Amino acid sequence: MNNLKYPIAAVWLINGLYCKVLNQVPRHQEIVGRILGTEHAALFTKLIGFAEIGMAVWIISGLRPRLNTIVQVVVIASMNLLEFILVPDLLLWGKFNAFFAFLFILLIGFTGLRRPATET
Questions:
Q1: Averaged pLDDT, 58-67
Q2: Cα separations (Å) of 77 from 34, 40, 107?
Q3: H or E element, residue 2
Q4: What is d(CA 80, CA 69) in angstroms, rounded to the nearest whole number?
Q5: Which one, of 92, 98, 72, lies nearest residue 9 by Cα?
Q6: Residue 104: Cβ-neighbour burial (10 angstroms; 0-12, 13-18, 19+)
Q7: How far apart are CA 18 and CA 14, in angstroms?
Q8: Is the pTM of this model over 0.85?
Q9: Cβ neighbours, 10 Å, residue 13
Q10: Which residues lie closer than 8 Å to 1 by C-beta, 6 or more apart?
């Protein structure tokens, strides 16, 4: 990844730490509760948040960037598909969230899968 890795990592960090671990955006826990059940929604939301923080660290580390890119795309596409189908009413922009997820996937794919200028 190039210099866009920091803004991409920031998205994961903000969503993981601020929104989920610190529960500053309770809608995230509502989404998790609706999909996985309310009994352990707080725990699952925090675990997802820690995984997102881990993704941010992995992005910044630069280790296995192509694998990282593929994992990001799969996670974002899966997460947004589930939310689109199961809880569109809880999404910030409703079903239009899928459009923004698609744009983010394109950005990640473009920055993470293109060949560096030094490669032939």
A1: 96
A2: 19, 24, 13
A3: none
A4: 16
A5: 72
A6: middle
A7: 5
A8: yes
A9: 19
A10: 8, 59, 62, 65, 68, 69, 111, 112
